[in-house]
Amino acid sequence: MASNALQIAGLASGFMGMVGTLAVTIMPQWRVSAFIGSNIVVAENMWEGLWMSCMRHANIRMQCKVYDSLLALSPDLQAARGLMCAASVLSFLAFMTAILGMKCTRCTGDNEKVKGHILLTAGVVLIVTGVVVLIPVSWVGNAIIRDFYNPVVNMAQKRELGEALYLGWTTALVLIAGGTLFCCVFCCSERSNSYRYSIPSHRTTQKSYYTGKKSPSVHSKSQYV
Q1: By the 8 A CB rule, do 5 and 12 touch?
Q2: Residue 157 and residue 51: Cα distance in Å, rounded?
Q3: Spelled out in words, what is the top-level CATH class assigned to the domain 1-27+74-196?
Q4: Cys-Cys crosslink for 116: which of 42, 108, 189, 222, Cβ 3.0 to 4.6 Å?
Q5: Full DSSP string of 96-126
Q6: Could you give the angle at the alpha carbon of 148 between the alpha carbons of 142 and 153, nearest 5°?
């Protein structure tokens, strides 16, 4: 019963992590304009993401523009684009693998040992995906904070942490938690199987008892002969 609950919780965490990874990859709010100094009177918001930059003036609809080239991005955003694309693929593969390893899935048979190894694989991939998401989000966040407190950087070029970064940190934790739950399911199943095979059956114990009880009588008969 506890194993089923862990499987459902792990699958739900994997699904939320997959959706969160895709959302973080698409969202343009990685870097947002910082309203400090003379920028307070500027009535415009600027967002910078992995694929496009958006600007919204006062009382004007938001305008977004896709980057003309990958070289237009800073090195941290270039690396973040590749890592987030890889994380999106890994999260999808891990989620589909987890579905195959669920106890209610019949296409992989009824062998609990095989399903346990499938869930272990899905758990490891989820943990790796969480680390892959955590690297670019933390990298970009560190660059934003470093430039924000750098006095050499112009006030108009300073940025703040966007919503995509906070969602990315949360998604990484959810992915790691989901992978840990699947690993716990595998450990519990292996422990239950080893405990099951280590306890002899009642029929085997009873048979060995009668065999041991019968052998002295045969030996005693041979003495009388």
Answers
A1: no
A2: 19
A3: mainly alpha
A4: 189
A5: HHHHHHSTT--TT-S-HHHHHHHHHHHHHHH
A6: 120
Q: What is the mean pLDDT of residues 196-218?
A: 48
| Interval 169-189: pLDDT, tens | 999 999 999 999 988 888 877
Is there a contact between 37 and 62 (Cβ–Cβ < 8 Å)? Answer: no
> CA-to-CA distance for 219 and 209, rounded, in angstroms?
16
Instruction: Please state the domain extents for the chain.
Output: 1-27+74-196
- Give the confidence band of 46 by pLDDT, cuts at 50, 70, 90: confident
CB atoms within 10 A of CB 164: 27
121 residue type, one letter: T
Q: What pLDDT score does 149 carry?
A: 87
Tokens 């002295």 correspond to 216
Tell me the Ramachandran region of residue 59: left when phi exceeds 0, alpha when psi lies from -120 to 50, beta otherwise.
left
Give the pTM: 0.78
Backbone φ, ψ for residue 136 (5° rounding): -65, -35
Element (H, E) at 161: strand 159-161
